[in-house]
Amino acid sequence: MSEGVKQTFEAYETECSDELYDKNTSVDHGRIEERVCLVLKADRLPKWVPREDWAGLNTIIQIQSERTIMANGTVTQDTRYYISSLLLSADRIAAYVRGYWGTENQLHYTLDMFWGEDGSRKRIGCAADNFGTVLRIAHNLIKTHLENISIKRKRKKADRSDLYREQILRLQT
Question: In a designed cystine with 61, which of 34, 82, 132, 150 is the match (CB 3.0 to 4.6 A)?
């Protein structure tokens, strides 16, 4: 599938209309990032690409990004491919993809900063996945607790008080 998607974009890149093309530039956090989103209908995939495993496949998406670090001028380029059942314009799909990664990055940052997930040494079997699930549950329980203090303070308070920990775990009202 991946190779077929790449080949399709190489063949049709010059034929994209404005509704299938979106270009976005942002300057933030000391870097300039330019993203180009190209969207093609999935029926342009080569015939040899197995489509039966992808019921509802309507579009294939290519996002090319170029990031320039303003401090030293370092430039990195990346191309990502996606498949989708959505029939939307390129600007809408680009917004969805960017929103997904923003949410994913924020969750990863939070789990690492408050829970030290990156420093975890759990490597045997499913231990890392299982512990990650427990961390997400604990994080959501603490985050949704009604007291209006920081997550860090809630964690410290729960460490020190059985009663407060029971409130967070909703074992008592």
Answer: 82
